[in-house]
Amino acid sequence: MARVKLQITRRAFMKSALAGGGGLAMAGLGAGAGLAAPPARIIDGEPGWFYRGEIKRTYNYCDMCPWRCGVIVESVNGQVYKIDGNPADPKSRGMLCARGQGGVSFMYDPDRLQAPMVRTGERGEGKFQEVTWTEALDQAAEKIQAIADEYGPESIAIFGHTSGDFWLTDYFAQAFGTPNAAKPSASLCTSPREEASTLTFGLPVGGHEPVDWDYLKCLTLIGSHIGEDSRNTLMQDYTNAWARGAKVIVVDPRMSTVASKADYWLPIKPGTDTALLLAWMNVIINENRYDAEYVAEWTEGFEALKAHVQAFTPEWAAGITELPAELIAETARVMADNAPQAVIMPGRHTTWYGNDTQRMRAEYLINSLLGAYGRQGGFYFNKSPYIESYPHPPFLVKGTSGGCSAGPSEDVANAPLPAGPTGKHRADGVREDFLRGATAMQELIDPMISGEPYPIKGLIVYGVNLLNSIPDTERTKEALKKLDFVLVIDVLPQEHVAWADIVLPEATYLERYDELWTVAHKTPYIAMREPAVEPLYDTKPAWWMARELGLRLDMDKYFKWQDIEEYLNTRLMSVGSSLDKMREQNGVIIQKGKPYFEDYGNKSPFHTKSKKIELFAHELELAGLGGLPVYEEIEQPPDGYMRLLYGRHPVHTFAKTQNTPVLHALYPENEVWINEDLAAAQGFKDGDMVWLENQDGARSGPVRVKATQRIRKDAVYLVHGFGQNAPGLSRANGKGASDTKLETRYALDPISGGAGMRVNFVHLVKEA
Ligand code: MGD
Ligand code: MGD
Ligand code: SF4
Predict the structure, then answer these.
(1) Nearest alpha carbon to residue 370 among 288, 303, 259
(2) What percent of the chain is modeled with pLDDT above 90?
(3) Which of 209, 251, 379, 715 lies at a 20 to 30 A Cα distance from 82?
(4) Which ligand 1 atom minimizes the distance to the CA of 649?
(5) DSSP conformational letter for 88
């Protein structure tokens, strides 16, 4: 009884604490260069910004991370002062996380790129000279054209991320005719979960994990670290469910923030999750705890699955996962007792060990046994909003860039499938090994070096942190040296910018219009982005750059629109709206969804061949990859080494916000988490400065030791995005250690093409 009381008290405390934290964040980080705006009339002897002139409010969607919450931006006299969550937007509901608030500071970062530049020194030296936009675009177009004439359009690769990437990675790439467009948010992030979902349900997960939070009773997180992964509405939904008393099971080798609030923390041996998942299925099936009616009506392959899991008992899994067999059985029962309002939430960053699609399928099979899909409190079916593309002639190739965001890239025409150098597609348009729905970014590097199976000679990098996001950075540098042409479009002098031939500085999301943000959701919706102020310095938006390049490359027929407002208004006309009407409707258009089975009448919501959930994946079986998930042992750390794990920090996004003044002030450098007893045995203590060295001799640091009992002895943990080597980033340069630089190898998932990066081992070296 005492335990229950304590739990309720703690939940109530957490709810108010989190609400308080949100309130603080909302009040605190908005004014000037993103610093606190005290609620006083006079600030530093001057009237508060809100008295200095008329407050202009504009609609936008946040670009500080890929979640893209709807925001309202307040500016006075051409200066942005404040960003608030848009209450009408389903992904912010009037709130923001710290990074969203930090957008003002991101925009006013004095280190920003300010004018187009051409290289004057060697690649990598970072020596440039400023030029006019006309000179930069003319030279870039000339180079691109020359490469395409000699080697074909496919010899230009385009890497893109952040929300303006649509213009380059999707629109420009498909119109130009290169299949070699890729986003890190696919093969370095979500591709296993998307591929597994497509194989099992015929449907992708989409950008927003469709957990029906309001009615949820039991949440299981496999590695997802909500709270450190600080996606705004996800944290709101989690907090509400938790405060309501939903059970929480967290599986993580590290006691993450969310694990510290969970009912069950399973400190699993890294890389053994599939064994745990198989054992959970064993318990759920053998104890008849599955939803037999649902399984009979909506799934295919149950008998094969039942036979398959017989050997995978909790005792078998205990020996592999280093978790007690009773705990494995008990947590399976907790899930089943709460079904169908019980879900294993698909993680987002799912490229871990190279066998990741099978692990994700195992998660989906459990959710299916519990009858969670299409049921209130389980998973809803998300639906994309209806809106027409801007009319254009058919593109030369179909998009293959993928990515975790169901956004602008849905807007692609039905063009023939390309044959990329990763050999994904047969000439008849059938996916060769049906594997790898999206082009794998890391696999496009080899053809840049070897020229096989055909050469890639030019690279356009839009909003991708090339030397901080792709493993094996030395290989990337080798490729950069070999290329005939490198064009970088960015807002900051990130490390890779020094390797460009031409640098085009973009205006930030607060200074530009952009493609509409179309979101597959329980309530499908469309959000708009408009500039709050004129672009700072000599910067321009991506849509303008893509169009200017297109016009110079004889692609006029794809760029008939004269400006972005015409483009957007034409699209919006198809849903009876316009930019003006959207402004009157709080910046969003919300449509009706079809979340549950009853919304489909006699039709099946699943898009597999059988129109059912395919527990047994025939396609995988035919390809020799196994119709049902199996546990595969992975390499263990050599003596004296620990596995390198990594993840997020609540106030930073990847490697792009470390230089943002207010976010830098909150968390200026990362730490290496190591088990306290192990650290002591190795002669290290909390606060020591060390270097990390991996199995191949790559080093990063110095970084501070965080000696803690909250992590297993076989792993260390770093927040991703630090340890940068970019002198132009005056705050971030040289702070902490880089997980990426220690990831000299990765394990390729044969099904999704995802690059598992948790296959590197490090040891601590005293700072010299
Ligand atoms: P992961 O990187 O998959 O994160 O966020 P998630 O999908 O939640 O998981 C990190 C967790 O996995 C860590 O707690 C780590 O200890 C644990 N882990 C490591 N190895 C294993 C293992 O073998 N088994 C298990 N069970 N757990 C393991 C990523 C997500 O975050 C993504 S993809 C994006 S795009 C967003 N990025 C982002 C950001 O940059 N900053 C912030 N603040 N939030 C973000 N939210 C999103
Ligand atoms: P960021 O560091 O956010 O990561 O990969 P990236 O998207 O490459 O880099 C964004 C880049 O865009 C930066 O160079 C930034 O300056 C620039 N930028 C920001 N705003 C704008 C803009 O408005 N316009 C333009 N043109 N540029 C802009 C993320 C990817 O990384 C993902 S999604 C995941 S989940 C993986 N995470 C991950 C990890 O956790 N560890 C390691 N080692 N590698 C990882 N790779 C993947
Ligand atoms: Fe911006 Fe935070 Fe929302 Fe991401 S979760 S879009 S950083 S407010």
Answers:
(1) 288
(2) 83
(3) 209
(4) 43
(5) T
